[in-house]
Amino acid sequence: MKRSLKRILISPLDWGLGHATRCIPIIKELQIEGAEVIIAGEGRSAELLKQEFPNLEFLHLPGYEISYPEKGGMALHMMLSAPGILRGIRNEHKTLQKIIRERKIDLVISDNRYGLWSHEVPCIFITHQVFIQAPFAAGLLHRQTAKYMSRFSECWIPDLEGEDNLAGCLAHTKPLPDHCFFIGPLSRFRFQERKPVSKYDLVISLSGPEPQRSVFEKEVLAQIAGMPRKILLLQGITNKPFRKEEGNRTIVSHLCAGDMMEVLSGTSLLICRSGYSSIMDAAVLGKKCIFIPTPGQTEQEYLASYHAEKGHCIALEQKSFDLNEAVVKAEFIRGFEGKQFSDIVLKERLMKWLEI
Description:
By secondary structure, the protein is an alpha/beta fold. It is built from twelve helices and 14 strands.
């Protein structure tokens, strides 16, 4: 029996595509339960979700306008950007109150958007970074984010409890507040028992904010020229459809979740950023990976190192990236196991709020 219709607002942070892709299984589960889903956001993450859910209502909700420097220190850049980020958090909090009243929202689900809390309705915060990695002032940063997180009704961590986890110290450093729950990894893909026929020897998936996405793409294009392997390059651009085939190379701007799963399931090796959503996808599909962290992003640098120690990937710096050498090294790693993670806890948490 379906529950009475609830109007749910879900909004991912527009910082790369990962925050949007891991919202896909939540949106699908809400639809199964008969909820009316409204998506709020902007940029490439909003475009991705529009392609996956063209019949849903979308609201424009500006983000924090986070960017990476092409050169120079990321830590200093983020410190200088802090006033703008805090202003963005305050603005989205004010905008949310208006949206709740005008759209009669019953529940808010925020993926890493700290300002989307309210006293008027329950609000859920999704993050894998409970304990943010930073080169300095980590304690101060943790206290500030913990303060924001305490304002939400619940905090959902897309990971497993115990040692067999994907986030490492990002979510397992200290005891968690009582309103935090591990809900299991969130992937837009489903585990397949039988491996499909391989179409590509190597898939390279680009993601993350500019200008580093374009910087890395330029480097990759130079290195795949003339390689004898059959290669697919996914640009991670959601708003400009593009496809080009040259010899063994195929370049595509973006693939929907179904097509992406088919391609990744059939390849033996994936090269991508070490964003947490990419790691969850690779863990479900059981891929060998070459992770190249976005320069200066301490979270991705940590996750690449963490999973390299587990034998899941080869971790390389962008500035010294050598594709041929990396492919050879990847032959000797174990890779991710490949399994379907349970969604029981996610269903339980959603059912709790849908019944209130």
